[in-house]
Design brief:
alpha/beta; Heat Shock Protein 90; Rossmann fold; seven-stranded mixed sheet; five-stranded mixed sheet; 20 helices; rod-shaped; binds adenosine-5'-diphosphate
Length: 683
């Protein structure tokens, strides 16, 4: 279904609802000012006629009130020959109540029932104790009207039906002994018990209501006046709702409650039906609107997903494009540092190196922040040693601390598990940022990196703290420095550098890991940053993910095939490897690499992933398909694509290791040295 169809359907439903209400209003008022004739005869207390009072009775009151509400004038006419004759001869247009027999009188219209007539047997207790179960041969007096006669004939087969001219005569016929029992409607019985016909005055009468013989009654109308009768019938609904009908019933019936209950029962059904229709319309509209909203949301989400996908691709490309030349700059600077002896030139090269690292750091921060902003930053779960992580961070920052004359120490307390499952790289990133800040903002004193473990069993909570004795952070700024680009004051950038992104990223990383980054600080006294993460303890035997670079590692005698399309990066990799004592051969793309591996034995392949003709993944898969020992050849990715996805792709293609550009000498040496040598892997 197209999206526009749903609001259209909802609008149509609302329009239909509006049209219906408008039509109902019109219908209710269409007979204002109209005058009609309505007939009665003697049937108290339902209706009755006298010369002095005219029409009176329950149904008369009800019809008068219904007519008043509809703006219709009723002229009551006394009809000696009964309702049907009066209606069919056009003497009158309406009759207030008659047994509801839809379709039985084709020339007449019957409204929905508005009342119910319950029937009863009345008999003389002196003549018979009970009315027998079966009425065969028993004389039953019934008013000589079509509907009651038909009802009696149908219900009492075999009984001797004795028709009486009027309702009053029914009781009289029984009391006179012409019939054994009188069969009449309860309302007549009620009216007559208080005002008995002469023949019945001294009798002991017994009344037995017949609840199963209850007949609905409706307004009868001459066919053309059907719509008017229906409008009057609708107004009776209103009278039930506002209690008017109950008041009339109380006035006319001694047993009004049962009578009214029946009317209310009928009314309730109608009302429930209307409610149901209303609820259906409202629900239809609501469901329509909801479906429309869901479809809208779904298409918006699809759009957002697409935008996110594009952003992810863009970020990966930007990262790749910047890292590739940066690898060249940094690698060349590293090589230069090893060859240049002149102190001044060395200093210049150091400046190049530091500036390039600074830029790389900035790139990493901007990429991280935009990944967090777009929800693309995913955590990786691998086994790592928390203790080693802290020690590595300490080791990394020792030279910087020493240069500043600040004491740096790591303090590990509690039972810290050997390995835990989590994103060690991201925890290291947070800790690195905190320690870097701590040393940066401390002139003298100390910086302490703390690790405390809590909990035993499958889960452990690791508390990391970085405490310094530095300049501290003013209380009013302690909340805001976690915001993006926020520094204590503008002079910070000039004096200490930095972007103000570090703490914001750190806090968001910690939150992604389910923890919270907190700060306590006293200006002039120092700061204490802390965060906690809860991680599963890795089962013993799990392999540690990251190999910590080992200083002074050499690769003497290792034959390495460097597969790299960028000439500068070829030179950098070859230069670094040669300096480590390795023998290097070059291939410019995947196709060349596959050919070379076929022709010659290498100890390891350093494989760039993005290359023309055949990329690193495809080349690795080709090599893994080869016959012989060569298919076990260790292959390490050396790529500028650093996302988790790229790592996964490399592993899936069958690579054994992963190095991100720009790579430094130690990382390169440690990673390659940790690989199994050719003779071990041979089949
Ligand atoms: P950056 O250090 O890149 O400017 P951060 O988000 O890491 O960005 O830090 C934001 C600011 O918080 C810093 O510029 C500094 O003003 C303040 N700050 C952070 N750590 C410390 C600390 N240990 N001592 C004093 N000030 C700090």
């Amino acid at each position: 279904m197209p999206v526009w169809a749903v609001p259209l359907a909802a609008a149509m439903l609302i329009a239909a609802g509006g049209f219906w209400s408008w039509r109902e209003y019109g219908r209710a008022n269409q007979f204002r000012g109209v005058s009609v004739r309505i007939g009665v005869d003697h049937n108290p207390p339902n209706y009755d006629w006298s010369e002095q009072k005219g029409a009176s009775g329950f149904a008369v009151d009800v019809m008068n009130e219904a007519a008043r509400r509809a703006g219709v004038t009723l002229q009551w006419v006394y009809c000696v020959r009964g309702s049907r004759v009066a209606l069919e001869s056009h003497e009158i247009e309406l009759w207030p109540t008659g047994f509801y027999r839809p379709g039985e009188y084709p020339a007449l219209h019957q409204t929905r029932p508005w009342s119910q007539d319950q029937h009863a047997f009345v008999w003389d207790r002196e003549r018979r104790a009970e009315v027998p179960e079966r009425l065969e041969g028993v004389g039953v007096a019934v008013v000589n009207r079509m509907a009651p006669l038909a009802l009696a004939r149908q219900m009492f087969p075999g009984a001797r039906i004795v028709p009486a001219p009027s309702r009053r005569d029914v009781l009289q016929t029984m009391c006179a002994g012409a019939a054994d029992v009188a069969f009449m409607d309860m309302r007549t019985v009620e009216g007559m018990l208080l005002d008995r016909p002469d023949q019945c005055r001294d009798k002991v009468l017994h009344v037995k209501p017949q609840p199963e013989l209850t007949d609905p009654t409706s307004i009868f109308a001459w066919k053309d006046q059907g719509p008017l009768a229906d409008v009057l019938r609708d107004r009776i609904d209103d009278m039930v709702a506002d209690g008017t009908l109950m008041r009339y019933a109380d006035r006319w019936f001694s047993f009004s409650s049962s009578d009214v209950r029946q009317v209310l029962g009928l009314q309730e059904q109608t009302r429930q039906l209307r409610w149901l229709a209303g609820v259906c319309v409202v629900m239809g509209v609501a469901i329509g609107l909801m479906t429309w909203l869901i479809l809208k949301l779904r298409s918006a989400r699809a759009g957002a997903d697409r935008a996110r996908q594009l952003q992810a691709e863009f970020l990966a490309n930007v990262s790749h494009e910047i890292r590739t030349p940066m690898n060249g700059v940094l690698g060349t600077a590293d090589l230069l540092l090893e060859t240049v002896d002149n102190a001044e030139m060395r200093e210049q090269v150091e400046t190049i190196r530091e500036s390039a690292y600074g830029q790389l750091e900035l790139l990493n921060q901007i990429l991280d922040q935009s990944k967090i902003d777009s929800g693309l930053l995913l955590l990786e779960t691998t086994p790592f040693s928390p203790r080693k992580l802290v020690e590595q961070v300490e080791k990394t920052f020792l030279p910087m601390a020493r240069r500043k004359g600040v004491e740096l120490r790591a303090v590990v307390t509690g039972e810290v598990p050997g390995l835990v499952q989590g994103d060690g790289l991201r925890i290291r990133q947070v800790l690195t940022n905190l320690v870097n800040n701590a040393i940066k903002f401390t002139k003298e004193g100390s910086v302490e990196i703390g690790l405390r473990a809590e909990g035993s069993g499958a889960l452990v909570t690791l508390w990391f703290t970085v405490i310094d004795t530095g300049i501290g952070i003013p209380r009013e700024l302690q909340g805001s420095i976690f915001e993006k680009f926020r520094q204590v004051d503008a002079s910070t950038t000039r004096k200490y550098g930095g972007t103000g992104l570090g703490l914001s990223i750190s806090r968001q990383l910690v939150r992604l890991m389910g923890g919270e980054l907190t700060l306590e600080s006293e200006p002039g006294q120092g700061s204490r940053f802390g965060f906690q993460v809860q991680l599963p303890v890795a089962r013993s035997g799990a392999a540690e993910a990251s190999v910590a670079p080992v200083k002074g590692q050499m690769l003497t005698g290792l034959v390495v095939l460097v597969v790299e399309d960028n000439v500068v990066n070829q030179k950098v990799a070859a230069g670094l490897l040669k300096r480590l004592g390795a023998t290097v051969e070059l291939a410019a793309n995947g196709v060349e690499a596959v050919t070379k591996c076929r022709e010659k034995e290498y100890d390891v392949v350093l494989m760039d992933c993005h290359m023309p003709e055949m990329d690193g993944y495809a080349a690795t898969m080709e090599i893994r398909k080869m016959d012989g020992a060569v298919r076990h050849l260790p292959i390490v990715a050396l790529t500028a694509g650093v996302s988790g996805e790229e790592r996964l792709k490399a592993m899936q293609a069958g690579m054994d290791g992963f190095l991100a550009k720009p790579v430094n000498r130690e990382e390169l040496a440690s990673t390659l040295a940790a690989l199994p040598r050719r003779d071990v892997a041979a089949e």
